[in-house]
Task: inverse folding
């Protein structure tokens, strides 16, 4: 998913559907529904993480990712810049250096899904790529090249 704007959610086991607003102004704004399946491991389960966040944030309908700072309006959606700041802070705490942004969250999902054999249409629906050529050329072909390389069998 894109880092902004914040999605709203409807919990419907097993998983959840999020309605994501269009990040660009359109004449007739409408959201896109993105499904999120439960994970296989508690520590990486996105539904468990969402449940934990909603226990802290509260379950009032509205944007999922909101500011909880004192003085912030209730349920004010966070920006993509906030997501990038959080990613940078955690990367630094993990000892990672260099340029860090939130984009690899989306790119990594697309690449990992392609490596797992997920179809382009399903990946595009999840990541909300409008241009399939960009998704294929920047994420899927490089992932397939790594997966299909014969150099892995050379014993180097």
Result:
């Amino acid at each position: 998913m894109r880092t902004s704007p914040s999605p709203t959610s409807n919990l419907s086991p097993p998983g959840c559907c999020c309605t994501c607003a269009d990040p660009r102004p359109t004449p007739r704004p409408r959201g896109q529904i993105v499904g999120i399946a439960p994970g296989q491991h508690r520590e990486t389960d996105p539904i468990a993480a969402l449940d934990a966040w909603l226990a802290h944030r509260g379950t009032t309908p509205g944007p999922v990712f909101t500011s909880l700072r004192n003085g912030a309006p209730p349920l004010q959606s966070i920006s993509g810049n906030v997501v990038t700041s959080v990613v940078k802070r955690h990367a630094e705490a993990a000892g990672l250096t260099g340029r860090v942004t939130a984009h690899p969250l989306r790119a990594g999902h697309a690449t990992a899904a392609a490596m797992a054999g997920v179809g382009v249409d399903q990946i595009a629906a999840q990541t909300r790529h409008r241009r399939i050529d960009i998704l294929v050329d920047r994420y899927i072909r490089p992932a397939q090249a790594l997966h299909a390389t014969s150099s892995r069998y050379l014993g180097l």
About this structure: Confidence is low (pLDDT under 50) at residues 1-5. The first helix runs from residue 46 to 57. Helices lie at 46-57, 80-93, 103-115, 120-127, 132-148.
